[in-house]
Automatic annotation (TrEMBL):
<comment type="pathway">
    <text>Lipid metabolism.</text>
</comment>
<keyword id="KW-0812">Transmembrane</keyword>
<keyword id="KW-0472">Membrane</keyword>
<dbReference type="GO" id="GO:0003841">
    <property type="term" value="F:1-acylglycerol-3-phosphate O-acyltransferase activity"/>
</dbReference>
<feature type="domain" description="Phospholipid/glycerol acyltransferase">
    <location>
        <begin position="72"/>
        <end position="186"/>
    </location>
</feature>
<dbReference type="GO" id="GO:0006654">
    <property type="term" value="P:phosphatidic acid biosynthetic process"/>
</dbReference>
<feature type="transmembrane region" description="Helical">
    <location>
        <begin position="12"/>
        <end position="31"/>
    </location>
</feature>
<dbReference type="InterPro" id="IPR002123">
    <property type="entry name" value="Plipid/glycerol_acylTrfase"/>
</dbReference>
<keyword id="KW-0808">Transferase</keyword>
<dbReference type="Pfam" id="PF01553">
    <property type="entry name" value="Acyltransferase"/>
</dbReference>
<keyword id="KW-1133">Transmembrane helix</keyword>
<protein>
    <submittedName>
        <fullName>1-acyl-sn-glycerol-3-phosphate acyltransferase</fullName>
    </submittedName>
</protein>
<keyword id="KW-0012">Acyltransferase</keyword>
Amino acid sequence: MILLRSMLFNLAFYLNLIVQMIIFSPAYFLMRRKNAWVIPKNWVRSNHWLLKVIVGTDYSIEGLENLPDGPYIIAPKHQSFWDAYALLPHLDDPFYILKRELTWIPLFGWYVIKMQMVPIDRGAKSSVMPAVLERTRKQMADGRQLIIYPEGTRRPVGAEPVYKFGIARLYDQLQVPVVPVAMVPGLFWPRRKFIRYPGHIHVRFLEPIQPGMKPDAFLEKLVDVTEAATDELLVRTIDENPHLPLSETARKRYEELTGSSRSATASSR
């Protein structure tokens, strides 16, 4: 049953993307940039609905009161494609620093350009950073929120954290608050996997880290608060879903935190 629901959801997910792009593109490109956010945000909401109805996976967010007014950096855990889009409806005017190649994709790339994302040539490495920083400052001056994943890429649930120093440089240069975000969506939407599992994804916006700290001290605090909250949500989520299959890294981390054993291949619901 889970396999069938996963197949139906994945089909519906991509059909939803294609159909909405075709139907709403004329309105999207005619609207003012900030007003046009209503279209991708509604696409995200429709994906949440599809995931809930087809698979049985819902989500909730704690700590919305921790989101500051004006510009800030939001720093989520990154375990799944789900967290690449799921937070958009809860942010006013977000943007990403992303691979330049994404802007070359027909139609999708035009959507990206319309929203004034900040493209980066990863091959050029440090030589492009001054220009990227300048573009980021320009977006921040308009009161926007930068979404950046501190670990850079999707990590397995329960894996040892590997935070990049780049977010500390941005924190130091931009002088805006950073809001850590804890969550474990990879338990339900595993990275690089076709399968989707039913359950409830908990997301927690943590208290913002205010500007003014030394970059090293900031990064240490970011890791500490994010990982502590993520560990708490990991234990809570696994306890709430006793039949949820676990990866080896998730199982080991759960056992380290609780001192109790948990099967890595528990039976699916």
